């Protein structure tokens, strides 16, 4: 089709998932999914950590804040942690974090903790596809956009002040209400 | 945006990996994109980065362009990180100024849209570039290695691995659960395809193990605990009592003849219950160690395993002043120190009762393959005569392949050895009994040296091969000729007709499966299991005997079904890997340890989190201290330090934050239409 | 030589920070002797137009306390920023958002409705709400508008230094003033308090065993707390490990756990996430069923972990509130 | 209209010796032997038929068939079938739609589920047989006077009309539509059943039988529209 006048249609939105995978189980499983040529949605971007115990809740919040629509944490099955029980420590944090996130308006489906062993390449595929579907249904989280929205009120006033001060450079009253209030009756 | 210091000079390389990456990721486009990112001095794409020319390219560029960071986008870091670190080090840079991006396993191989895969590769590369800018030089730490090796399991795999290491001058502890080493192979009559006698080739190796000065053989023992790490494992072994002192017993077996039980009465495990033994017994004539043992469950001097001292103890009298029999023997736990571990715990034959339509346990003349191995063996319960449980001699025998293999209701995998051992048994049974032999198979799998020729030979011998998985074994006769017989009902899929074949004996070619306690063993050694329960190798092609735990290797059927030649080859490979590890004398440890910063407040939150007790508390400074020799680098304490006062080399907070930021800043180009699911 | 001009101002705050200035006691005289106070609404009658009349940068230093949550506060912050050489965010609210920052769990509409309509103590049958502009007898008085979001000072204007605390202690205040007057200043953006967590200064530190595992979180108002033992060892949530020291350990001194008003150390981006990580990881139990009852001892994680720092946290506020 | 095998491509050698064979060789009487060319051409395939069947819920596992013959081995009726169940699976997967739908194997299946229970690939063979039966009915190529489809048809017809069946009427209709001659051989059994109250001479019906008809109408949309 030859339609140069039409701007290209905006690509359909798909979620962005940041995944923190432990080196020994889930990262290896993701490698296995690759070696097995399993196909899954390209929405996930994996960060390798040595253990799910290393997943600092700050990382999760940072990922959401930077624009991730979901965060996936993958660790070894209970009892299988390469570091004995790092995964339990993540699990314990996770319960508290999910409650806190719910109170901050982030539904539980956006942050997911999964135990995936090194042999479960299929499970990597299933979890990523499933999470992609779920997030697709939830729609964008778009925290950067929300931050910009929130800050628009500041930017607006700052811009107004800027122009006002430009108009009246000397000893001006940039702020009207007090002037009105102090006027004698 | 991370502000890059002016001196950061990153070299970026994207690997085509032949077509593996290039077919799904536009490598030139990725290089062009990364080339314009801040801090990147050069960005190249190259066909094979891991090749020698690829590595030399990195070294040349480091010198020529003054690179001080290197990022390679190629395969998984688990595969080639060490390769590129070495290349970077050879180029004169600290190896930890290298960072790797996985665009093969995590992009090209798993996605189907080239534009989406390319976009993802760019994003992953951008994150790595940001992160690499923060990389710090780190020292390589060396740790000495204990030269001893633990071999777990005394089957042919364990025996071969132990002997190989012992011959190389290393001390080996060989731990076997049963009373004798030998494993399943010791029970076999002949071996395919050469038909040499299993005992004849195995026994000399067993004796060599028993006699070798470098091998400490502990049979009737279990590994109960493994601590430590590569090069320095501390292993606890439980030695169960045999009620016979191993040092004093000479293996004369006079005690057995003089046991209060005049006749063998109890099912003999070695002969699969087809023969009988006494409470005091030796598993089989060539058992190693040549030491008798007492079964406290049936010995009169015990009651249900508890010593009662009610027997006349004729065995003790027979032993005389050798005084080897010791009813007071207790279980002991011993501790050993080793540098490497080879796990060769073998397999368990499939329990044929799980396939009830074949009538095992219902019809006495249905046998498992292992029972038939003993039946045809000259030292077996019938001295090699093919006599059925009802005393008859068979004139027609059916061998049913794939019992507990290639079946999603039981085990879905092919057990690899059953076709060949079924043919071997067909040959032996025909040779011993002259009966008509029918093999019922789904597919004949004979991929080995001389295996197809063996199949040819069986065809020449007149053994029938009927392609069809047997529907049922029944004693219900439809025609007079079937009376008193076991009838095989099967579709002869090549002829396309359903057939009923009356036979006298049915042999079930049982598949191989993991031991029932494979999960417990896996946890003991910190290994992984595949979905089917066999131990998982580090890489199916390139690291087939290594596991994900450094210093722990696997050999034999515990990793998956395989035949004797493959098992021996793998055992040799495992021994060689262990040797390569311990002979080096030291290991380089990944410097991903945690470290306490000067601002620690001494809150002690991290102390209970360390599973290795690597974190201590310095009472003088009131701060936590991390013993880097004990730290394994999980980073749990780092994530949990409430004041951010613990760092982790290679995984510092700012490095991870920069990677997150790199992954999520606006996409490098209009996002192509990504399919939500492929 | 003219004395340096100094301004004090308050935005969304309780006034406690002003008290600290008063708490300087006689020392304040020394300060007053050395400086020329040009704005201090709580104590002295200056008018805004006095301030506006000053040249840009004429004020040497402004101490501004309180969070920014209205148009008036925002424009005053902008104005003071322009007039001042140094702007110091004074106290937890200006530094981190403070207690008013907890309003970020709700939308502006919810807050206004609650305050003017639904709160049990409100009698407001006409459901009157403050209007930005009202007509009274021909005059049009303006009222500031409330922002959607409560902000820290540095989310609105450039801030030079932060003096943490709810309120900052007189000692820290004196030290800061002394540093400013002497010109002996740390790098811009510094928090003028030690960069170590509170435990470092806490006399109870020594009583904490090395193997604290939480099986229960106890709320301080429901238990008689041991006045010597580490709160965490008693199962009481104490934010000391995740909070800067410098306060003089006043709350633990009064047998109450630290609630985190000094904010995180420089190495931490999100105080709440960090203390959550630490407490969570140290919970006993291995299954969700075992862990959950323990975690229920923290009924309000946001209010507990972000009591002072929600606007300064990574997420800043509840994210699913539509803008009114 | 799906591309079916065109009969024109079949060469029937009903009479006369095959061209290659010399007349009268071996003393065989070629004239009484009917020889058909049994080769399958690609054009005989109904491409997509197998995939289409496998898309039906319950039939997905067919793609994993390893042709081991267990189904035929356990099938109590496989000894009467023109194609063994295994062959039906192979023909279906290979898209030989006409061959499969014309096979009487699908009508002989007694739904005992032995094959489904024993299949090592967990293929739901009985379900596939049902699917094939339905397709045969939809395609109108089932054997018209074969009792099983007739029984099914008459059964549902009666239920739709009266809400339940009347055995005697059902049996009579079945015989009339299949092999009325066979009814004669069974008169005595019929008499016994009537005498013992198993056969009602009156048509039985339920109250509000129209509701049943409406329920059946709701689920009875043709699944595979006839070509």
Tell me the major beta sheet of chain C. 5 strands, parallel
Total number of beta strands of chain C? 7
Rg value of chain A: 24 Å
Largest beta-sheet characterization of chain A: 4 strands, parallel
Helix content of chain C: 25-40%
- Give the H and E element order of chain A: EHEHEHEHHH
Oligomeric category: heterotetramer
Structure, described:
With 185 residues, chain A is α/β, with parallel strands linked by helices. Chain A has helices at residues 26-35, 57-65, 86-103, 121-138, 143-167, 176-182, and strands spanning 17-22, 44-49, 70-75, 111-115. Chain A has a 4-stranded parallel β-sheet, sandwiched between helices. In chain A, helix 3 (86-103) links the parallel strand 3 (70-75) and strand 4 (111-115). The longest helix of chain A is centred in the C-terminal third of the chain and has 25 residues, at 143-167. With 324 residues, chain C is of the alpha/beta class. Chain C folds into 3 domains: 5-99 and 147-182, Rossmann fold (3-Layer(aba) Sandwich); 107-146, no CATH class; 198-305, no CATH class. Chain C is built from 11 helices and 7 strands. With 227 residues, chain D is mainly α. Chain D folds into 2 domains: 42-139, Orthogonal Bundle (Fumarate Reductase Iron-sulfur Protein, Chain B, domain 2); 147-217, no CATH class. Chain D has a two-stranded antiparallel ribbon. In chain D, helix 8 (147-162) packs across helix 9 (167-177) and helix 8 (147-162) packs across helix 12 (209-219). Residues 1-26 of chain D have low confidence and may be disordered. The chains are: A alpha/beta (185), B alpha/beta (678), C alpha/beta (324), D mainly alpha (227). Chains A and B meet through helix 1, strand 2, helix 2, helix 3 and helix 4 of A and helix 3, helix 4, helix 5, helix 15 and helix 16 of B.
Write the layout of secondary structure elements.
The complex is a heterotetramer of chains A (185), B (678), C (324) and D (227).
Chain B: E1 10-15, H1 27-35, E2 40-46, H2 52-65, E3 69-74, H3 77-90, E4 98-102, H4 104-108, H5 114-133, E5 141-144, E6 149-152, H6 156-167, E7 172-175, E8 190-191, E9 196-197, H7 198-211, E10 215-218, E11 221-229, E12 232-239, H8 254-257, E13 266-267, E14 276-277, E15 280-281, E16 293-294, E17 302-303, E18 306-307, H9 314-319, E19 332-338, E20 340-343, E21 348-349, E22 366-368, H10 369-376, E23 396-403, H11 418-433, E24 436-441, H12 451-460, E25 464-467, E26 472-474, E27 486-492, E28 497-503, E29 505-510, E30 512-513, H13 518-524, E31 552-554, H14 564-583, E32 586-589, E33 594-596, E34 615-618, E35 623-626, H15 636-640, E36 646-648, H16 653-664
Parallel strand pairs in B: 1-2, 1-3, 3-4, 6-7, 6-20, 7-10, 20-31, 22-29, 23-24, 23-29, 24-25
Antiparallel strand pairs in B: 5-32, 8-9, 11-12, 12-19, 13-14, 15-16, 17-18, 21-30, 26-27, 27-28, 33-36, 34-35
Chain C: E1 5-10, H1 16-23, H2 27-34, E2 36-39, H3 48-53, E3 59-65, E4 68-70, H4 71-83, E5 84-90, H5 92-96, H6 108-118, E6 146-151, E7 161-163, H7 170-182, H8 250-253, H9 271-281, H10 288-295, H11 301-305
Parallel strand pairs in C: 1-2, 1-3, 3-5, 5-7
Antiparallel strand pairs in C: 4-6
Chain D: E1 12-13, E2 35-36, H1 49-54, H2 70-74, H3 85-93, H4 97-102, H5 105-108, H6 114-118, H7 125-139, H8 147-162, H9 167-177, H10 180-185, H11 187-195, H12 209-219
